Amino acid sequence: MKKVSLVFWFSLLFSVATLNAQILEPVKWAFSLNKLSETEYEIIADATIDKNWHLYSSNIPEGGPIATSVVMINGGEKLRVGELREEPDADVQFDQAFDMELAWFSNKARFILPVTITDKDISELEGYVEFMSCDDEQCLPPDRIDFSFDLERGGAARQDPAVLVQEEDSDENITADRQEDTALEKSSDNEKSETRSHWTIFWLSFLAGFAALLTPCVFPMIPMTVSFFTKQSKTKASGFRNAILYGVSIIVIYVILGTVVTAVFGADVLNALSTNPWFNLFFAALLIVFAISFFGAFEIVLPNSWVSAADRGADKGGLIGIFFMAFTLALVSFSCTGPIVGTLIVQAASVGGMAPVVGMLGFSLALALPFALFAAFPGWLNSLPKSGGWLNSVKVVLGFLELAFAFKFLSITDMVWGLHVLEREVFIAIWITIFGALGFYLMGKIKLPHDSPMDHLPVSRMMLGLVVLAFTIYMIPGLWGAPVNLISGFPPPNNYAESPYGVGDKTPGTRGGSASPLGEDMHLGPQGIPAFDDYETALAYAKQVDKPLLLDFTGKGCTNCRKMEDAVWSNQTVKEMLANDYVLTSLYVDFRENLPEDEQYISPVTGKKIRTVGNKWSDFQISRFQRNSQPHYVILGHDEEPLVEERGYDTDVQNYIDWLKTGLLEFNQQ
Q: Domain span at residue 551?
C-alpha cells in the first residue's frame, strides 16, 4: 500500500511539474496603493514582461486584440473611477493581421487608475486587471488577476500567490528606475527589428532617389553642373575635390530636412499622424495633386526669390558657393523631387525614430552620387543618354504610381471610419484602371500635354508596358475573391469586402467551388471554411460523418492566428482539406460571453474561476493538452486522442499540408 501511494504521489508530482513547464506565464503583476488624500487614491499595477513577449496597451481600437484594463468590482456609486494612465509610452506598430495600428509594452509597464471614495462606508478597494499577451509566434488567452486593498489597515494588500505585492510607500525613485530600465531593455529587444526597418527605408529611398534623377527637372542639370566644375577648376585634383564637396552638400541639405521634420514634429507625433484618418485623408489628397502635376496639368514651383537668393550665394565661389549650388539644385528640382520627398518622409514616419533622417540619407545619396561622379570624371558624360521626351515619360509614370498609392491612404481612412466606400473590390477595380491606363500610356495609346511626338515605340518602353499590362490582368480575378498575393497589404483585407467569401458568397475551399450545405450549429469560419465553435457538438458530428476532428484553439485578438489563416489556410489545398476531410472546430479562448451560473466552476488545474465561454475553452486546452498559447492545432480521432503531433505557429504551407495528410492517414488506419 505504501509503495502504491509513493508511486501515485510521484506520478502526480511529475504530471504537475510537466504541466507547469508547458503553461506559459510571461506577465507577472505587482499591485500597490498610493494615497493622495483621505478620499483619493491611485491603484498602481506594475507588469513585468518576459523577453520577446509584449503586453497590449489599454488603448486598442475596436476590432483588435484584448486591451489591458483595470476594473473595480466593488463600491458602485460610492466610488468614482478616473481615466487609466500608462507608463512609459507604448510602442505603436502597424499590424497587417488586424490591419490597424496596435500599441503594446515590452519588458515592463505600469498602469495607474485614480479612484475617489464618495462614501466613508467603503473599507476595501477590490478589482482585477484583465490583459492579453503575445510573442512573435503565439498569443495567450485573456487572463484576469484579482487584487484588493484593506483601507482600514492603511491600504494593505491582500496576499495573493498569483502576484507579487508591493508596499504602499513605493516612491518616485522606483518609478524613475523602472522607466529607465524599460527604456534600456526596449532598446535592446527592438534593436534588430528597428535596424531592419531602417535598412528597408534606406534602400527604398535610395531607389526613389534614382527615380527622381531620371525626371526632366533633374537629369538635364547633370551636364550643366559638370560644365560649371570643368570651367571653375584649375586642376584635375581641385575639380575632383569640388565635385565631392558638391555631392556632400546635396546629402547634407536633404538630411537636414529629415532632421528638421523629426525635430519639429517628433518621431512619436509623426508615427501617430501616419495612422490618423484625417492625416491619411490629407496625404491622399496631396498625392493626387502631385500626380496631376506630374501628368502635366500644372507645375509645383517654389518662389523665384528663393531660387534667385540661392543663385547669388552660388556666385560667391569656394565652399559656400558650392553649397549654394547644391541648394539651388534642390530648389529648382522641387517640382519633381518634392512629391517623392514628401511621400518618403511620411512612409519613414510610420517606422518612427530616426527613419526620416535615414530616408533622406538614402534619397540624397542616390541623387548626389551621379552629380559628384560626372563632375569628377567629365569624360563619362558621353555615356549618358540624351535628354528628350523619355524624361517626361518617367515623370508621368511616377504620377501614375503616386495616384495608385493615394488610394492606399484613402483606404486606411475608409476602414478606420468604417464607411465601406472603398471596399476590397472597389480598391482593386481602381488599381486595375490606373495600371491599365499606365500600360496603354507606355504603349503610346495615351498622350499627355508635355509628351514629345513619337514616330516609333522603343523596345524598352514596349517591354515595360507589357509587364504593366500583365500585372493589370493579374489583378482582375481579385474582383471575384482571388487572393492576388502580389499586392497583399495594399487593398483592404478579404473581410472588408462586398463579398467576403467571393462572388455569390460561395464557400471557398470546397471542391468544385460550390459550398456543401452547412450542418446544424455550423458557421462559415476563417477563409469561408465550415466550422463549429463547440467541442461536444463537433465531436458528435465528426462521428456521424466519420471524419477526424481538427481543434483550432484561437482568439479574436490573436494576431498570429490571423497570420496563419491568411498565409496558410488561404492555400487552396489546405482549404479543401479542412472543408472536406476534417471537421473544423474553432475554440475562441477570448470569447467573453458569460457561462450560465450553474456552468461556472473553479478550474482544478489553475485554481481560477471559469466565468466565460473563452475561459472554458482556455481551461480545456490547458487541462487536456497542457498548453495555453494560440494558435494551437490538434487532430483528434473519435476516441478523443491526438492522432499526430500537435502544431503551433508555422507559416510553411507544405508542412501544414503534410501534417493534414498524415492525420488523415492515421485516422483511416484506425
A: 509-668
